[in-house]
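Late entry, written up from scratch paper. The run itself happened at the end of the previous shift, but nothing got recorded in the book at the time, so transcribing now.
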Amino acid sequence: MLTKNSSLLLTDAVKETNIAPVNRRNFLRYAGLSAGMIAFIGACKKDDNNTGVNLGSGDTGVLNYAYALEQLEAAFYIQVISTPYTNITAAETGYLTDIRDHEIAHREFFKKVLAANAIQGLEVNFTSINFSSRDSVLATAKAFEDLGVSAYNGAGKLLTDANNLLVAGKIVSVEARHAALIRDLISDGSFADSSVIDANGLDVVRTPNEVLTIAGTYLKTKVNASNLPTS
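Output as recorded:
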């Protein structure tokens, strides 16, 4: 479980990310992998008795939950840029490359902070996505970004350390910027429509179980969230 010193490391790592952001030229150095069906190899909590990769408990478990989602998003955008859809524009390539770099930075940030407590790398399943189709890619991007925002919104109350909550707030704000952009690429002006923002001006909230049920469609590796806090 993360100690107070570990949570301070979260803040330090964010500062490092702000000082030396991932850019398009050094992306491969951070990614350290090729395109395709990506199997990440990492440190971890193994899949015991087919129950799935256990995220752990407490703040560590919640951060591993975020790490799992960032692995999924990073893998998706790496594939999008590696095999661009038909007639992708220069502007769209730029936007999606920036999002890819952000998601890689998020993934590597959690991996670094969690260190020996990090779950293993997750293997993805993108067979349902047509990467040559703009509609398929953007619809999936929209689903992933909206899911990520709702996941962080639902996980915030589960964190006990204020430093961890602060970092989660910084990341969810970036995910929301991604979601707004993707929505407008699909339909101009839909960046904050009623499908995600309620009458009180509040965004969608999902529990870890709800999020992982949706994300599971795109993961070959089963994720076990049974030890996460619930309140």
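The chain is about 55% helix and 0% strand.
(Scratch paper discarded after transcription.)
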